[in-house]
Write a structure and sequence with these properties.
172 residues, alpha+beta, Alpha-Beta Plaits, four-stranded antiparallel β-sheet, 33% helix
């Protein structure tokens, strides 16, 4: 004989959730350090453009239910520490950010009509303990690139994250 027990809320302590309700929501912490460059890594991001571009990228993230915890970079590439909800894939997030920011650059800077982002990007997952060091890393881009090229930096990211790449196509 099968016995079915129906639990009533009175069976649980004051604020305790019934066991079947504990996973009724989706909880995700998807943090990515994303890196993308200008097409052919041309030095197209001017110092005057940087603060406005960083803020605009943050706005794109916000408008699409993402969080840009840090945005920075130099003349030829951008770093973003991005928190992405479960409903958005990394590739969609990057399409939104790169497409929206490229469109904004064309509209806001008439002399930058040739501006474009490189097709690819790097997206490296981090845990909660990596937030502060990643923000510090992004904020120190100008100093870091006095000692290291973008290509050197990106290869180090690939190696550190165990990502195989074909040197014939890199830098791509």
């Amino acid at each position: 004989m099968l016995t079915l027990m129906i639990a009533s809320p009175s069976r649980f302590s004051n604020n305790a959730m019934p066991p079947w309700r504990l996973m009724s929501h989706t909880y995700v912490n998807s943090l990515f350090h994303v890196v993308f460059s200008t097409k052919k890594r041309k030095n197209l991001i001017t110092r005057d453009m940087e603060p406005r571009l960083w803020a605009y990228i943050g706005g794109i993230a916000r408008e699409n239910k993402m969080k840009a915890l840090a945005v920075g970079g130099v003349e030829d590439h951008v770093h973003v520490l991005l928190s992405i909800p479960a409903t958005i894939s990394v590739s969609r997030a990057m399409r939104l950010i790169k497409g929206g920011s490229s469109r904004w650059i064309h509209e806001s800077f008439p002399d930058q009509q040739g501006f474009a982002w490189q097709e690819g990007y790097g997206a490296f997952s981090i845990g909660p303990n990596g937030i502060k060091p990643t923000i510090a890393y992004i904020e120190s881009q100008r100093e870091l690139h006095q000692r290291r090229t973008f290509e050197q930096e990106f290869v180090l990211f690939l190696q550190k994250n165990g990502i195989e790449y074909d040197e014939r196509y890199y830098p791509g």
